[in-house]
Amino acid sequence: MQTLQVELGERSYPIYIGDGLLAQSALLTRHIAGRQVAVVTNETVAPLYLETLLHALEGFKVASVVLPDGEAFKNWETLQLIFDGLLTARHDRRTTVIALGGGVIGDMAGFAAACYQRGVDFIQVPTTLLSQVDSSVGGKTGINHPLGKNMVGAFYQPKAVLIDTGSLRTLPSRELSAGLAEVIKYGLICDEPFLGWLESNMSALRALDNAALTYAIERSCVAKARVVGADEREAGVRATLNLGHTFGHAIETEQGYGVWLHGEAVAVGTVMALEMSHRLGWLSTQDRDRGVCLLQAAGLPVVPPQDMTPEQFLEHMAVDKKVLDGQLRLVLLKRLGEAVVTSDYPREILDATLRSDYAALVQSSNS
Question: Where is the 3-dehydroquinate synthase N-terminal domain (predicted)?
């Protein structure tokens, strides 16, 4: 088992990474202050891992809240089901909420914990690669709004993150690839040597090699913890973690939440950010194509939806959380391994990026 630390003063917390950790009761119970626990999970994860978790929580008064599965349910109506479960079981301020599932469950359970009786403890037990390397770490919680993704929420840190790599053995290949989009992101924004490792080990990752997965998760979490420790509330450097997300969130909102997986939309958004960085003269053709090819090797889409217009992109991007004083800030790459958040770019470069022929770009990248 590997143990990392997110350094946030009195709100610091550990990240445990290893195979079979879900059954290790002591890792969870040391972070539970009271006797009540509410496990929030979904219809897909519950049959796989809920019983194991409940066994690890023997001796506690546990209530389970099983939600419908999918991004389409990340909304107020589903959030209310968590509050219904907490209130029906008469949970008090010393209860601990445990999020057992992927990013949607983690975001909603964390938001519910932030709100219930003005804040109760919660623990993240992420079961997808995307949630293990990204959404479970850093305290971002929330729900979607029909006009914008993750526009309603709170910064609220967990007491611990328990990453059982064994849960990835039941993860569908499409979900695994979606998680790899966030893994690749860390190499692009702050760890260029990691890109080389990913290029050499992508086949092992997609084959669920435990050693490769554990290393990739650990290296991703180290990067995330370092950034969050420096900028918890996204006032500066933390925004670089959103590489590809502004374009990607526009795809998710326009296409309908859940039609594209988050990681799939981020992958296409990352290709668009690579292209815009190239058009600004910051990335060479070779470096742009290197990023595109790595995303493809991960089994990810790299071409935007054909039915989505530049005007639709701009409409959704206008309500992105990185818009300040009416200025759209984008995460772009000065070079591989160095990201920047900027609104200082010619509008015609953004327009040209949105109108690029990505099918031709991908074909050129592969030639």
Answer: 65-177
pLDDT in tens, 60-113: 999 999 999 999 999 999 999 999 999 999 999 999 999 999 999 999 999 999
118 belongs to the catalytic site: yes
Task: Consult the annotation and say whether 70 binds a ligand.
Answer: yes
Of 177, 236, 229, 239, nearest to 203 by C-alpha is 177
Catalytic residue selected from 159, 185, 219, 245: 245
Judge whether 182 counts as a catalytic residue.
Answer: yes
Q: Residue 323 has what pLDDT? A: 77
The domain defined by 173-366 carries CATH number 3.50.50.60: no
Convert the pLDDT of each residue in 135-155 to its tens digit.
Answer: 999 999 999 999 999 999 999
Whether 253 has a binding-site annotation, put simply, is no
| 71 assigned ligand-binding residue | yes
Of the residues 91, 159, 185, 262, which is catalytic? 262
The answer to whether residue 249 is catalytic is: yes
Beta-strand ranges (E) seen in 105-195 are 121-126, 140-145, 148-155, 160-164
Has 238 been annotated as catalytic?
yes
CA 134/CA 15 separation, integer angstroms = 12
149 is in an annotated binding site: yes
Instruction: Out of 234, 254, 264, 275, pick the active-site residue.
Output: 234
Phi/psi for 250 (5° steps) reads: -60, -40
Please tell me the pTM assigned to this model: 0.95
Q: Which is the catalytic residue, given 31, 159, 185, 249?
A: 249
245 in catalytic set: yes
Domain boundaries, the chain: 2-170, 173-366
Assigned CATH for 2-170: 3.40.50.1970
pLDDT band at 322 (very low <50, low <70, confident <90, very high): confident
The reported pLDDT for the residue numbered 173 is: 97
Q: What are the tokens at 249?
A: 């969130």
